[in-house]
Amino acid sequence: MADQINVTDSRSRSPWPWIIGIIVILIAIWAFTQMGDTTTDEVNINVPAPAEPATPAAPAGDSGNNAGGDTTNP
To answer: Can you point out the beta strands (E) in 1-74?
Structure first.
């Protein structure tokens, strides 16, 4: 009976089922963590932007306003 066992015949298994299984497990873990994420870092696109304050206009007839310093010639 021992002479019928073939010890030299070794069949190597493909690693692809293990690789696919690991990828499926990683995707499942990622999906599970995304379901539990309650933080909202998203931008609300329907909210209008705040209005910028208007700059005051120069009074009429005040074209010689020198607010930047003395620019007169000596």
So the answer is: none
